[in-house]
Amino acid sequence: MRKHPLDLFSLIAGGLFATIAVLYLVAALNDQSVNGRIVIPVTLIVLGTAGLAGAVAAMSRRGRGGPPHSPSD
Q1: Which phi and psi (to 5°) does residue 31 adopt?
Q2: Of 7, 14, 35, 59, which is the most exposed, with the fewest CB atoms less than 10 Å away?
Q3: Where does residue 63 rank: exposed (0-12), middle (13-18), buried (19+ CB within 10 A)?
């Protein structure tokens, strides 16, 4: 089986949504409520940060992270 490159954004997004699901499940089992005013902005911030991290990781894998090199004369 061939290895594929790590997709950092998908990994973080999946972990985040699994965490939110567990949070709501635990709150429902304990007759508590989850404040959506906190969960939604935190989710968007984490997804934005994950998107940036995924883009930086993809750029570094492709070798476009630094300035272009000039040819030696």
Answers
A1: 55, 40
A2: 35
A3: exposed
pLDDT at position 5 is 77
pLDDT in tens, 17-57: 999 999 999 999 998 888 889 889 999 998 899 889 888 88
For the chain, the structural domain boundaries read 8-62
Is pTM, for the whole model, over 0.70? no
Could you tell me how far CA 29 lies from the centroid of its own chain? 28
Say which residues have a Cβ less than 8 Å from residue 18's Cβ, sequence separation at least 6: none
Six-digit token pair at 33? 């409520």
Residue ranges with strand state E in 1-73? none
